[in-house]
Amino acid sequence: MSTYCIGDIHGCYDEFMALLDLVKFNPKTDFLLTTGDVIGRGPKPIETLNFLLKYQDRIISVLGNHDLSLLRNYHLYSELKDAASKEKFLFNLKASELKKIINEKNGTEMISFLRNCPMTFWDRRHNLFISHAGLSPEWNIFDAMKNGNHVEQLLRSEHFGILMENMFSDRQCRWAPIKAEIQNNFAQKPFKTSIHYRRHMDYEDGIYDYMSLYPSLELDRCIYTINALTRMRFCYTDLSLDFDCKDKPKENKNRNLKPWYDYPNSQFKNSQTIIFGHWAALEGKNPADNIIALDTGCVWNGSLSLINIEAPAKRYSVKANH
Predict the structure, then answer these.
(1) Where are the domains of the chain?
(2) For residue range 284-304, what is the model confidence (pLDDT) as tens digits?
(3) pLDDT tops 50 at residue 205
């Protein structure tokens, strides 16, 4: 049995299949982890999602910003009442994934699959953490998993629409003020740590509806969490997140910005492995031996990359062919 982790697929299905063939991936015995953004901009989102659905018992995919964007567009489309408004909405979308999914017989199943994907993944045995964008310098891994779990709960709850309508906001770029409000307003419930290959995490005493009790604060928490786990690249010196700069670190000319992994964080010690995607400009160059960048820009005519987590130093790649 092998466990592989693959970078941002972005609907590049042919390269996805070629890479799995290269490592002789066996869905009966192997596991596959992804860094998110399984769709978005690429040519074959339907084929990609159908493969993930078919083998969802052997695949865990954390959510990326493009995956969440699709869910948001699906919600906004579903809220429209008349056919003309829906047609206009689809026409104005830059990407065509939503239209393709709506026209599929199992389109709702694809949406349900994405709504049930986790925000983070932690493998205790290998001391390995995965999120789409990395780990906020204001958080430890426990913080990331705990707050990611709040987003996961909303994605699967009656509050899904509220989250979708508010989640892409630049206003929540610091964690410290939100943390202070949380501590002042309600006590933290006991949190159950993960087991090997767990899909989701729950609170020991059940799931708590914080959105109904503290809607503004819970939205702030979840907006920051989505920003940190799916949109982050650079941070300012006060640790606030930047959402504009996508450059290579060496090409960044703003002295007040540094990559998130360049700020002190005890979680970056060598015993902890952090895997992320999202930042294609890094070209797969790892910031450190234990901080692994897996987005190698396949959708931008780069390549698609994968590692075996038992031997992460060796990387397998196939060049873009679309």
Answers:
(1) 3-319
(2) 999 999 999 999 999 999 999
(3) no
Assign 3-class secondary structure to the chain.
Answer: CCEEEECCCCCCHHHHHHHHHHCCCCCCCCEEEECCCCCCCCCCHHHHHHHHHHCCCCEEECCCHHHHHHHHHHHHHHHCCCHHHHHHHHHHCCCCHHHHHHCCCCHHHHHHHHHCCCCCEEECCCCEEECCCCCCCCCCHHHHHHHHHHHHHHHCCCCHHHHHHHCCCCCCCCCHHHHHHHHHHCCCCCECCCCCCCCCCCECCCCCCHHHHCHHHHHHHHHHHHHHHHCCCEEECCCCECCCCCCCHHHCCCCCEEEHHHCCCHHHCCCCEEEECCCHHHCCCCCECCEEECCCEHHHCCEEEEEECCCCCCEEEEECCC
Task: Please tell me the predicted confidence (pLDDT) of residue 271.
Answer: 76
- This model's pTM is above 0.85: yes
Architecture of domain 3-319: 4-Layer Sandwich (3.60)
Write out pLDDT tens, residues 39-73.
Answer: 998 999 999 999 999 999 999 999 999 999 999 99
